[in-house]
Amino acid sequence: MNRSRSSLRFGVVSVGMAIAVLLGAVVIGPASADPLSDKKAEAAQIGAQLAQLQDRQHDLNGQFEQANYELHQAQEKVIAAKALAAQTAAEADKRREDLRHYAVAAYQSGNDSPEFDALITNDASTGVQKRSYLQSISGSRQDLVDALNAARQKAEEDGVRLKAAEDVSTAKAAEIEQLKKAADDAANQQAAINTKVQGELKVLVDAENARIAAAAAAARAAAANAASGGRASAAPNPNPGRIRSEVSGAIAAGRTKLGAEYVWAAEGPDVFDCSGFVRWSFLQVGISLPHYSGAMYQSTIRISESQLQPGDLVFWGVGGSQHVAIYIGGNQILHTAHGVAITSMNGWWTYGPVMTFGRIP
């Protein structure tokens, strides 16, 4: 999932506008001749608002996980660039020291010209021997000068590379802060609406939320069926491979964290984001997965929904970029969106994108 900075800024502004609009929307209207109808209409409006806010939060969570994954990659490049720069600096220091020793040795020998050395010695071979010994230690003077210049040039290139890596890292960190603010705004708006909704209205809103979720799940199923040409059980990979025996252990490990809090960028042992939770669960049985759902998607074998077995991964978003969960059988998933929980595979994300599925090779 690649999103430009302009789209990110638009997303932040959109959430801000939504907050103003939605806060104003949760106001009890004037009494009418049919109070029950009014309540139902209000519940429908509030239910839609809450569903949209929840979907916005899930979307932002996915964006954050991608940005955080890319930030770690950028930071690794910074570390590598610094290490390379330090290595180049050490090489330059060595080349300068080689030249210094050469100059001292040449001075002590009288001259670094064998012809001149021969003239000022009793034995014509002495000067040549001195120069030969000097070359065996340090190479020719021009070789040392060339080596130092090459090291200096490489140091300049290292500096440019390091600056570029640091710029990317800084930009990703700023993007993450924007995403955090947008997600906090959406969460605060949802909390404000829930505070206003009490009593009979809350019962109606809960019923409306369930209706919206069911309708959205049916729409996603229809879209998936249409995309496969009406072959809902079509298998994109007829031979997805043997299921790893360790996955039962990963599921068991994940279950021990039921109720653990969702925290941005966390990967355990007590708080998690979505890919951090899946990563932690599989690490307990020696399987290492990257800490980003999109990267997990790339590392798994594509399977169809009909091929799902416990331990397979379920993805949402283009290229698995927005969310990932562990399938545990019976149309249920183990994952964290607002905290580690077991939910139905369908309906937990009201307006979520069509699911895709992967198996760990």
Structure at a glance:
Helix content is 63%, strand content 9%.
What brief labels describe this structure?
361 residues, endopeptidase fold (from Nostoc punctiforme), disordered N terminus, single chain, two-stranded parallel sheet, 2 domains, alpha+beta
Structural summary, described in words:
The protein is an alpha+beta fold. The protein is built from 9 helices and 8 strands. The strands form 2 sheets. A 6-stranded antiparallel β-sheet has the order 3-8-4-5-6-7. The chain has a two-stranded parallel sheet with strand order 1-2. Strand 4 and strand 5 (323-329) form a beta hairpin. Helix 2 (35-109) packs antiparallel against helix 5 (141-196), helix 2 packs across helix 6 and helix 7 (247-255) crosses helix 8 (274-283).
Instruction: State the low-pLDDT regions, or none.
Output: 1-33, 115-122, 133-138, 232-239
Number of strands: 8
Shape: elongated
Calculate the terminal CA-CA distance, rounded to whole Å.
23 Å
Give the SSE layout.
Elements: H1 5-25, H2 35-109, H3 114-119, H4 124-138, H5 141-196, H6 199-227, H7 247-255, E1 261-262, E2 271-272, H8 274-283, H9 293-299, E3 301-303, E4 313-316, E5 323-329, E6 332-336, E7 340-344, E8 355-359
Parallel strand pairs: 1-2
Antiparallel strand pairs: 3-8, 4-5, 4-8, 5-6, 6-7
Helix pairs in contact: 1-5, 2-4, 2-5, 2-6, 7-8
